[in-house]
Design a protein that fits this description.
The complex is a heterotrimer. By secondary structure, chain A is mostly helical. Chain A has one domain. Chain A has a two-stranded antiparallel sheet. The longest helix of chain A is centred in the N-terminal third of the chain and has 32 residues. The radius of gyration of chain A is 20 Å and the shape is globular. The mean pLDDT of chain A is 88. In chain B, strand 1 and strand 2 form a beta hairpin. In chain B, helix 3 crosses helix 4 and helix 4 crosses helix 5. The radius of gyration of chain B is 18 Å and the shape is globular. The two termini of chain B are 33 Å apart. The model of chain B has no long low-confidence stretch (mean pLDDT 91). Chain C is mostly helical. Chain C has one domain. Helix content of chain C is 75%, strand content 3%. In chain C, the strands form two sheets. A two-stranded antiparallel sheet of chain C has the order 1-4. Chain C has a two-stranded antiparallel ribbon with strand order 2-3. In chain C, helix 2 packs antiparallel against helix 9, helix 4 packs antiparallel against helix 9 and helix 6 crosses helix 7. The longest helix of chain C is centred in the last third of the chain and has 27 residues. The mean pLDDT of chain C is 91. Classes of the chains: A mainly alpha, B alpha/beta, C mainly alpha. Chains in contact: A-C, B-C. Chains A and C meet through helix 4, helix 9 and helix 11 of A and helix 5, helix 10 and helix 12 of C.
């Protein structure tokens, strides 16, 4: 197997991993702090992608498009929290799942009305297009490197905020003891709205960065959302560290699996058998991984509350 | 009468730096009512959770009727005749009183992988459950949803549920907690009625209840049993008085 | 009064359902026959979900998996020219039970939100599996050339006969479901939902009972899958789409989890609403979504709760 190919796929895996992390971080925080299962988290991914694309086309500036897209997703997240989700915190998980499922239908249809059902292909500005020669013989798309850098930077920033700031202290305290935080005189409602909004913005960031790689279309958020669930189950619910570990594991496993399971099977099976079993196995890989992790550690790799 | 039913040897459990059970040794004899008392934070809840199989010790052994049950789950212990009530009433609020008890009877009479016959209409389950409800004074309340029973009735129902498993040992975690004077008297009467026929472990803060019911008392302080003996011995024990009972009982 | 309503409503419902083919023929609207048949098939699926969701407290967000497995069992056998209905449906039920056993064995060890995510994820895995197998049409799916054959018993190409078969299976499922939830087994899964700690303390380990319930629910839903693929005459991974699982959950909640017949009400309410809205605007999901949110927020005991007031 070509070493460069492996390296390139590993970078792709890392890139998928950081995207999954951006999604998982918000979801796992919202669950850890507000005890809310938010299926509509994928909708913010989609909203971010659509808004950034729209603003980029409207203003002609990519950076402006991205900024407005992020701000817009934050605003949508805050609005959804205020209007619909706030009343769900104290409700059973079943109610949360169903209500946020209803929200998904709403958002997907709204996107279809505003921008149509067809997939939108977005372009990159010249300064982000093209390839970088990492070293002799390995050229890698600049944009994917940017995604990796942004993702890792956000992960570092999140670590800083959660571990070193007063807000982070409240977030950690809120995850383990809600009543105590309220007793400290903190405006818990505002804290919740803030956390939820920034979680939405992170999902929006993932979505708008994915736009130029994949396509922008209604329902795009749910496919990644279910992978994010796998990430969270593997990493341990409520844990940022777990979300990062899970995201990288799932990103790598999924990408490398799709690239190499078939050729590897072909070395032991017949070509047609490998052609049939390869894609099937590759598509199931992360779920099988999840099953194995669950069998060994039912609370995930990094349980938030021991 | 003097055979050991439950034997605890060197039980140790820690949570981080906190040693909640510190080499606990305990012997409960067949037929006795054995009270475990101790100040708040002494580790009573941790200890009884390990006895009932809701929590597993780091070290030490629990023997029940000569069998090592240290590694057995709560249901497995229940099937061997170890029943318990909880400090916070644990019943089925959306089932009737009769159904609550019938389920416990069902757990100990044949397989429950039966899919066809309505369990409510099984005469043997019904009659056994009705008899036990009668015994605890809830005979007239069998059709009431457990959620709609008064607090004292719910506690009695929980004890009925435990009795319905035909236990060899009944562990009662603060059976009179949160009760008024009259309800407490009724509960103590019920427990006196059960006492003698059954082996009871009574974990209780109410000293009237403890001293009127217990044959022997063990005192738990900071995870250690500091004394075990008959009520008058415990009352007279200077270490116990200093550590726990204080002046209120000594007076 | 209340007990009279309890007796009259199901009987009236059965009479209404039995009269649908006649009404459709008189009105010359075969579409209604098709619609109600489809709704009844989903009602069977929702009913099976309610065994574990409503009675067992297991929030499975992956019940569409068994619709898919049942449908694929029929479709794949038909693909290889095996059209014997007994064999096809037996495989549909058996394969669904097996898949439920595997998924349940892992996921029932967990609880709460883990359980929700895991059941959803495993169903997504099967969905992707369906998409990746080109032999069976990949994501396009494939046509069911010949419906399941039950020579001498029934011809599924006869729309009325097929309709009454579905109705009969629905009634049978309702009857057996009621027996099940009232049986010793049913009492144990309800008890484990109501108070797990208490249930363990009287001597029941909930796991084997929950797993058995999960398998039974999967098997019944597999049968619904076999019906569905015969109904649509088309096999597609979309049967296992996660939104399908969500819809099944909604049918259960909308109808009410506290009775066996609730999910049937829910299936009719949801699918008739979908049908009405989609006839009105192509953007019907824009209306349906918020309606579902509102129903969760305000209709706590489901439609069955509106029809049958609480006993006490």
């Amino acid at each position: 197997m070509n070493l460069f190919l492996v390296l390139e796929q590993a970078l792709n895996g890392l890139q998928l991993g950081v995207m999954l992390f951006l999604m998982a971080a918000g979801l796992t925080l919202v669950f850890g702090i507000m005890n809310l299962v938010n299926l509509a988290h994928g909708s913010f991914y989609m909203v971010g992608a659509y808004l950034a694309t729209y603003f980029y086309q409207a203003t002609g500036s990519y950076l402006l498009g991205v900024s407005l897209g992020l701000a817009g997703t934050l605003a949508v997240g805050v609005a959804v929290e205020l209007v619909a989700l706030r009343t769900l915190y104290e409700r059973p998980h079943l109610d949360q799942v169903l209500a946020t499922f209803g929200l998904i239908l709403f958002f997907n249809e709204l996107a279809a009305i505003l921008w149509g059902r067809a997939a939108i292909y977005t372009t990159l500005p010249d300064y982000l297009a093209g390839h970088v020669e990492l070293f002799a013989g390995l050229r890698y798309p600049l944009y994917r490197l940017v995604i990796i850098a942004v993702g890792l930077a956000v992960a570092g920033l999140l670590w800083f905020v959660v571990a070193r700031t007063r807000l982070g202290m409240l977030i950690r305290a809120g995850a383990s003891n809600r009543a105590m935080v309220a007793a400290l005189g903190v405006n818990v409602r505002l804290l919740y709205t803030l956390v939820f909004g920034f979680g939405a913005a992170l999902a929006g960031l993932a979505g708008l960065m994915s736009g130029p790689i994949h396509v922008v279309q209604p329902g795009m958020g749910e496919l990644i959302l279910i992978e994010v669930f796998v990430v969270i189950v593997i990493g341990g619910i409520g844990s940022i560290r777990g979300a990062l570990a899970g995201a990288l594991i799932v990103g790598m496993a999924d990408t490398l699996g799709r690239a190499f399971v078939r050729p590897m099977l072909a070395t032991v099976l017949s070509r047609t058998a490998a052609d049939t079993a390869g894609p099937a196995l590759a598509s199931m890989l992360i779920y099988l991984l999840m099953a194995i992790v669950l069998a060994l550690k039912p609370q995930g790799l990094f349980p938030a509350r021991a | 009468m003097n055979r050991t039913l439950l034997e605890v040897r060197g039980l140790r459990k820690s949570f981080g730096a906190l040693l909640a059970s510190d080499d606990v040794d305990l012997e409960v004899l067949e037929g006795e009512t054995h009270a475990i008392i101790g100040p708040n934070g002494a580790g009573k809840t941790t200890l009884i959770s390990q006895l009932a199989g809701n929590l597993f010790p780091d070290r030490g052994r629990v023997l029940f009727a000569g069998e090592d049950i240290t590694a057995l789950s709560a249901p497995a212990r229940a099937r061997r005749g170890f029943a318990r009530s909880f400090q916070i009433t644990s019943i089925y609020p959306d089932f009737t009183a009769l159904e609550n008890v019938m389920l416990a009877v069902q757990a100990h009479s044949g397989s429950s992988f039966r899919f066809w016959r309505p369990a409510r209409e099984e005469p043997s389950l019904r009659s056994a459950a009705s008899a036990i409800l009668e015994e605890v004074g809830l005979g007239g309340r069998s059709g009431v949803l457990a959620a709609n029973l008064a607090h004292g009735e719910q506690r009695a129902l929980e004890i009925a549920t435990a009795l319905a498993t035909r236990p060899r040992l009944l562990l009662l975690d603060e059976p009179v907690a949160g009760m008024g004077v009259e309800e407490t008297q009724r509960m103590i009467a019920l427990l006196s009625f059960l006492k003698g026929g059954k082996t009871l472990i009574l974990v209780e803060h109410d000293m009237d209840a403890v001293f009127s019911l217990a044959d022997r008392i063990s005192v738990l302080v900071y995870g250690r049993i500091i004394a075990t003996g008959a009520p008058e011995e415990i009352r007279a024990n200077p270490e116990v008085r200093r550590a726990y009972l204080g002046e209120e009982v000594a007076a | 009064m209340n007990s009279r309503i309890r007796a009259i409503v199901p009987a009236a419902g059965l009479v209404l359902l039995a009269a649908v083919p006649l009404a459709a023929a008189l009105l010359d609207q075969p579409f209604y026959l098709d619609l109600v048949r489809r709704i009844m098939i989903f009602a069977i699926a929702a009913l099976s979900l309610n065994l574990i969701l409503g009675y067992g407290g297991m929030i499975s967000f992956g019940h569409a998996a068994y619709l898919g497995v049942g449908a694929y069992a029929v479709g794949v056998l038909a693909h290889y020219g095996i059209n014997d209905g007994y064999l096809q449906w037996a495989l549909a039920i058996g394969a669904s039970a097996l898949v439920a056993l595997a998924i349940g064995a892992i996921s029932i060890r967990t609880s709460g939100v883990y359980f929700i995510m895991i059941t959803l994820a495993f169903t997504q895995m099967l969905y992707y599996l369906g998409i990746s197998i080109e032999e069976y049409g990949g994501d396009d799916g494939m046509r069911l050339q010949v419906k399941s054959q039950f020579p001498g018993l029934i011809d599924l190409n006869d729309a009325n006969a097929f309709y009454y078969l579905v109705l009969a299976i629905l009634v049978l499922a309702l009857f057996l479901g009621q027996r099940l939830v009232d049986s010793r087994f049913g009492m144990v899964i309800r008890a484990a939902k109501s108070n797990e700690v208490r249930t363990r303390s009287i001597g029941f380990s909930p796991y084997p009972y929950r797993l058995a319930a999960f398998v039974i629910a999967g098997a019944v839903c597999g049968l619904a899958g076999a019906l569905l693929v015969n109904h649509t005459a088309y096999l597609t991974p979309e049967f296992m789409n996660w939104t399908r699982s969500g819809e099944l959950m909604f049918m259960v909640i909308l109808g009410g989890m506290e009775s066996i017949a609730g999910p049937v009400l829910g299936a009719f309410a949801l699918l008739l609403l979908e049908d009405a809205l989609s006839g009105w605007t192509q953007h019907w999901q824009l209306v349906l979504g918020p309606l579902l949110v509102l129903s969760v927020l305000f209709l706590k005991r489901g439609l069955a709760g509106l029809v049958f007031a609480k006993n006490e």
